[in-house]
Amino acid sequence: MFSASLRQVTSLKQKIPFLNELHLNFILLHYAYIISWAITGSIIVYLGGNIDYVDALFQAAGAATQSGLNTVNLNTLRLYQQIVLYMITCLCTPIFIHGALVFIRLYWFEKRFQHVVRDARAMRRTRSRMQTVTDDGDSEDININRAEGGVSGRPITVIRNDSGDARDARSTDPTSKDFAPGINTPERRESSVDSSSDGTSASNEPRFGLGSLKVPTHLSPEHHIAFLEKQRKDKGALRIPSPREYDRGGAPEALEEVANQDGEQAQHSSDHDDQDDQISPNTHSEELDQLGPLEGPHITINEPDISRTRPRGNTFPRLDTRPTVRETKDGNETTTLAPTNTRNPVRGLIRSLTQERDISTQPYLSWNATVARNSNFVDLTEEQRDELGGIEYRALKTLAVLLIIYYLGFHLIGMVSMIGWIMTNDKWGDVVRADGVGRPWWGIFTSASAFNDLGFTLTPDSMYSFQRAIFPLLMLSFLIIIGNTAFPCMLRLMIWVLSKLTRQGSALWEELKFLLDHPRRCFTLLFPRNATWWLFAIVVALNGIDVIFFLILDLHDSAVTDLPVGIRILDGFFQAAATRTAGFGIISLSELHPAVQVSYMIMMYISVFPIAISMRRTNVYEEKSLGIYGSNDDDDDEETNAPTYIGAHLRRQLSFDLWYVFLGLFIIAIAEGSRLQNREDYSFQLFTVLFEVVSAYGTVGLSFGYTNVDTSFSGQFNVVSKLVIIAMQVRGRHRGLPYALDRAVLLPSDALNRHEAEEGERRMRRRTSNLSGGGSFAQSQSRTLSQARNDAGLSSDRYSGVLVPTLETKSPITTSTQPEQDTPVQTPWYNPRGWSLRKKLIISTTTIVTILATILIPVEIIQNRYPNYTPLNYTLADTYSGRTFFDQFIYFTNEDPTDGFVVYVNKSTATHLNLTYATESSAILRVDASTPNTLSGRNSVRIESRSTYDSGLFIFDIIHTPFGCATWPALWLTDGYNWPMNGEIDVLETTNLGSRGNEITIHTTKGCKMDVKRKQTGQGIFTNCDNVTNGNSGCGVIGDENTYGEEMNNRGGGVYALELRDAGIRTWFFPSGAIPADITNENPDPSSWGIALADFPSTNCDIATHFKNLSIIVNIDLCGELAAQKQFYDTLYHCPATCSDFVASNPGSFVNAYWEFRSFKVYRAY
User: Fold this and answer.
1) What pLDDT is attached to residue 882?
2) CA distance 504 to 519
3) How does it sit in the membrane (predicted)?
4) 523 near 744, Cβ under 8 Å?
5) Please, which of 247, 460, 848, 871 could form a disulfide with 1087 given CB 3.0 to 4.6 Å?
């Protein structure tokens, strides 16, 4: 699959010159992947037909980038739209994308290195068989024999003297003069202790041959290895500087050191020694005396312990020795190695507690490799490269399995726990059901949203309704943390625990050990030990800071202090965990202390820093966020200490981010300038815009929201501003990603091998160049070093300045395992270890689809139910018409419940002012259009029918509808004494000019949702009918322009028909001239009227329970809570001045503010 795709891309690039010049890398492919899913998802979501395309694109981009900002409430979307957003998120998370790289690299391993894969599989089978026939005692014998065979059980090369004689490196002759015991060997440590205790010389102690040389063990938190080369010269020892000193211009120097009787050192030529590793001449001098003299002068390869900001847990430690000239008993001088440390004890204790004691430095390789930074193996032969590829391939396979277990396992844990909790808790289950969401689907979606750090919720108020729900807040906090910021920590912990539970020396143990030793060679989000501890400490510190600010700075905010102390701490912790990643809201941000708001904005911006810095620290190519800051020279100054390094990273990151953030803010400020300048729109402020921009760029999703609206603040933006936020989300999603140079994202290839070889050669050439620049002395010393290297059998392999002896490698792994391939062990079909990669992918995908289908198909079936609107026979019950029209109504004279700038008058006043009157053909209800300067409100009328209804068919024949700035007319049904318990049906309602068409709405208490199958021609805008959600917007349906206002009036009016029955509520509109004959003949049959303008079925709403004892109400309100809102009065309809001032001073503007009806007729079913 991958090769076919690459061939198509290559063919396309050859045909198009522009593409041929385009160099694809990881970051470009990542951009293409995210954008592709955003566009694809937007198209699928838009096909639902219930939202604008810009909102569909906004939602899909939010899911692809895990931003979590929403311009529409997710519970108003159809189920399939919610599922699409769910799937996009799961396919675009960092864990999924970076994990996919592991599978791609595995594919390329199998494609390019088939022989390595074959050998690696054979090795695993061989190890498995060995474990089944070897008991614990045998294992110990194997380890002992391995240690006694040389360094890590590998043979040692022959070391020759000047005369050309050779001595067997495996010789066990204790009298061999060329033997120099390892500094860290147990024998030497025992000899030193014994001799020190009795004060006698060690000259009489028996010598030890190389055959008894053991694997180096720890004498101190830092390992020390010294290699001695004999040199037939009578002069002082030659000091070879480290590669870093060569880079600084250093050259070989002859040490003229003379030690006096008490061991004090007279002179040292190097000025670059680390103070932590300074030589103390007295510390271990007695140890070395016990070993007797070493014959002749020696070359000592010395690497100063230069402090570097890199992990200490490397495979090979640095050499930490200093040459000291001592006098022997016969008066001759000899150069010995005196590794003496006077390092900080606290620092050593910390290192000793954090460093592992390796039984073997690289037990998974048959040779002692030279490893540079970022697990870069240098100077490898073809056989060694194949063996390294074999263990890396095996480690990648193990990592792939662990990633699948991690990703699916924690998804499943969150899903099961949240479903189990919500299904067994009726109190919180009612909250979910009230928003029209199925409880199982809520558990699935919410847990995945937390683990994937998405932030979308199916409850419109985010997690505000669950402020006091302890279990979900704890579980979601855990999922949020391990799904993003602490994912590298949790993954390494899981690998480490498995390595401790696995038998040492087994194939699986070697694979896990390789992952722990070389994490960044295998996976971009797996770091070395020290970097992982650093990341864990940062995560804990940032969460702690947020909780402290939340508790201390909000001591006087009732939104926080009203909560019990325990719940307050829990909410603070949940909000802290969600602030940098998920973006859930547990409390209204606008009610918090301004300093807490600013701290949250800062935390959102730095959300990527911990992982980005950890990734950059462990990358040899100096990758930072979206930029590479590497060069041919090592950045010594920056690497010197951590604070300087982090400061440099922050400065570069700020220069990368800030211009883009403020450019987006600037564009939005232009696009939303009129609203930002409006002082009365207190919820639309520049700081809230900046907060939204930072939230989008940080891909967090935290938002201030807007008054009486449950969506994010972005929902108030226009199209241009929404597109800017989308761009912020996409750009911000790519902060902290590795570039193509990162070793963990490079595919195995010949080019990669050549690159690594060239890197080693480049550093060697730089070293040689510095040597040649040191004058005749340096040249002579360079020749001497070269000769010594050849005589001693040393290669140019080095690690941190230490020359490593060339060791005889064991037979290639293919040779040792070839006989085993003849009789392979067949694993059972049910054992996942025997499955191919394709089989594992197929089974994993099938399992996921099956689980989702089992849960979602029943939900989908329920959601697609539709009530049976069987035809009913209706008979006329009540008629409101002619001169007696108003006699059947009661005039409402109380204060306006919606705080309108209006005075409702009684019947006599209305008749006197000619605000209501009736003729044989029509009835009129109007607003006072003559009285000037009405300081307390303009006169108007509100009437309520004396009869009440629980069901029926209502026919409203309308000639004229009111319109004009500041008006809020309505024809509706409700129980004025028991609202909202008995429901409300708005047959006609709009504000101001009413040019957008009529809005038909129902309002209820909890438990009525319209997120189900509906048959209607109007556009639904909300699906939760609960009056406490969406600012009491209810479940609305908007008709076209001719369904209300001036457009309807010019067409001669029309008929609105409302059917209220147990099966549902339906409303039709028939313009004048298109009224059905059965309505005119007073024999209405709704089954013949076609699809309704608005449909509110009883699928997820008990109509008989929510609607009863309803009166017919007609009124014309002025201003009020709805008409005076800036988004309607000013922004949408561009009405002048303020609403109340306009009403008071402009009576002539209300000449069109009147209702005119032909009749109301109510039919009952029989």
Assistant:
1) 92
2) 19
3) Lipid-anchor; GPI-anchor; Multi-pass membrane protein
4) yes
5) 871
